[in-house]
Amino acid sequence: MDKYLFTSPRLGFRHWQDSDTLPFTAMGQDAAVMQYFPQLMTAEATAALIMRIQTHFREKGYGLYATDLLSTGTFIGFIGFSTPSFPTDFTPCTEIGWRLQSAVWGQGLATEGARACLEYGFRHFHFPAIYSFTAVQNQRSEKVMQKIGMHQVGLFDHPLVAADSSLQKHVLYKITQSDIISLQHL
């Protein structure tokens, strides 16, 4: 069986393996990676997140794909889909997100990977729409959203972030299947 569920020119997308735990734990302790999250992640919190990701895959058939550099086979983080569990006017929904090791930033990998995931998600899972959101300060992620053809549809206060936190205000982006078709014709 092929290791990857799908690939992009430089990335492979797969299910999580035990060997991903240590590098993902290190990412959760990297202040640059976690800059727009309320806190760094402990090893226990990282293990719990991996378990939630694996449960999401079993229940939905898709999730946050463990992502490797094809040239080396090295795990560099995740790109993929989740289902936000908090109540807002746009949930339930399918969210696309990414978290990559800071060592690979600035190479266009998040954009490349997110595009591949959008195409895979719309083709295989027929999502009506896909959303993405981040703290308003996270301009790097917001630029990825824009580069993959998403459109800003609002701002919201993230209900799981403390009201007194500078990270509570989030931008909200959305893309539909017809948006993807339009982009392919440009």
UniProtKB/TrEMBL annotation:
Entry-linked Pfam families: Acetyltransf_3 (PF13302)
Domain of life: Bacteria
Domain N-acetyltransferase per the UniProt entry, residue ranges: 11-178
Gene3D superfamilies with a match to the protein in the record: 3.40.630.30
Protein name: GNAT family N-acetyltransferase
Species in which this protein is naturally found: Chitinophaga nivalis
